[in-house]
Task: structure prediction
Amino acid sequence: MLDQLEQLKQEALKEIGAVENLETLNDLRVKYLGKKGPMTEIMKQMGKLSAEERPKVGAIANEVREQLTNAIQEQQDELGAAQIKAQLANETIDVTLPGTAVEAGTGHLLTQVIEEIEDLFIGMGYTIAEGPEVEKDYYNFEALNLPKDHPARDMQDSFYITENTLLRTQTSPVQARVMEKHDFANGPIKIICPGKVYRRDNDDATHSHQFTQIEGLVVDENITLADLKGTLTVLAKKMFGEDRDVRLRPSFFPFTEPSVEMDISCFKCGGEGCRVCKGTGWIEILGSGMVHPNVLEMSGIDSKKYSGFAFGMGPERVAMLKYAVDDIRHLYTNDLRFTNQFSVKE
Result:
């Protein structure tokens, strides 16, 4: 048995010393020291030895096992170090080479316009309010002075989900929800409500079944139409240039009284008349007006004490006018050739 151990040791050490990769080394470890390996078999046979031979053979067997274990560990360390060295050599980076240019992303035109409008109104003390896109009929219509069967509902062909639930047709429901919960002990209402809205419409160069709106609302004591015009004048000059003139024309919206539409002097021709303004010198931008007393009362606000103004605009229209975009569908097709024309705002 001692001869077997010596022969096994010499054979194993020779193979271990000649191995060239870690995978083969692991196979040798299993081959010689595993549960089914020769070392295990020799140890099993020790029970047949005499009481005098057993300690001597056991000591030598343990010594051989330890020598093989140490040889495998040393070879593993050498092969591991060589592997890391080779990997480092293969993956060496020449830090003197010029770097790869990283192109800066470009914000979507519509996002840029919305953020520009938001920044303007936040600077004037407004806060941003948001609400659900799947809305109750009550908040979308009834709380805004549009009861069931009101003829003005025909102005907004809606996507109904159930009889009393629909995709909101405007962001005005957010205003209704804010007014319903507001406590004037905390100050006046000054909010803008940006978000997506949905109406059944045929998509073409100027219409879309899904678009965005930004509506604004101010409610406090002694709010007048002059406050509305002053606010909209600041908006027009910021978005279209300091030399813009503003005019308000009478109009009709169920949730405001009086209702007005705002026009700005044409930024293309300066008011002389051109293709952009269709020869009138003016461009329609948005609808607005003083909040209807019924809307205030529906939200639990005393219309004899408080008044307010509201306005609503389409960022798509602002973007199309400001940047001469001739088709609203360009804003939704995710065409990088279009998007990359508009640089990131600093």
Observations:
- The chain has a mean pLDDT of 85.
- The beta strands are 127-128, 134-136, 159-162, 165-167, 189-198, 210-220, 246-253, 256-265, 282-291, 307-313.
